[in-house]
Amino acid sequence: MRGAAALALVVAALAWPVAGGAASGVAQAWTGEVEGTLTETGHRDNEASDPDNRVVVDDSQLYRVRFTFGFRVTRDGSIVGKGVGEYLDATWHLEGRNGDAGSFSCDPEVRVPDTFKVEVVGRAKGRTLELELRLKNVFESNDELDCGADFTAYAGETHKIVDSMDVSGARKLSVDQAQASVAPINYHEELTVGEREVERDHEWRITLKHDCRGSDYTDPSSSEYVNQYDAGDALDLPVSHGRSAPVPGAIPAAAT
What does pTM read for this prediction? Predict the structure, then answer.
């Protein structure tokens, strides 16, 4: 896993230039940073009455990621962006007793990508940003491992971080541009998977900010700007299909 310093090298690239500037239909540049943690504990007990046949397994898993991204709101209200991230932690520990074979304990090595890509899509609706954060090439995998006492940790591949974003609601966000903030996400779940009792804690911290300020040094996110394609809804204006509807109080242009 690469360090935070390596990740920082790509941050400047997130506010990528667009040829043609305003003429290309691009406006409102934003940057964001996300840190997510998934903690999972499991317990399995076959509750065999004969101690020689009783199998008890306790395991704990920890996954932490961090990613940064940039996105822009185009003139038609579409949100387009990209980013990069990395795993900060990916661990799995198992221990227990396998009947008359005795106790076991092991720590399978969890493989994760060095870095992964982030795609940002969505739409601006009036003063609200509807964002979706899509993680690419994100997985956790491990090889089969003998834990001792005739107990084996089997090989497999999971997508726990991706699943965590879905379950906790961290993948799809609705953000007020005037506030440009996302409340911390903390979600706890308890479930049964086969004979295994599982508890999961999902924690996500998401920050957003404008990457530039106006000529008067004010933050554009606090301006009175309303997306032109949602002005009707935002300002309760009449809407016409095919031709522009007259605005109450508007002064018609003088004939030439």
Answer: 0.76
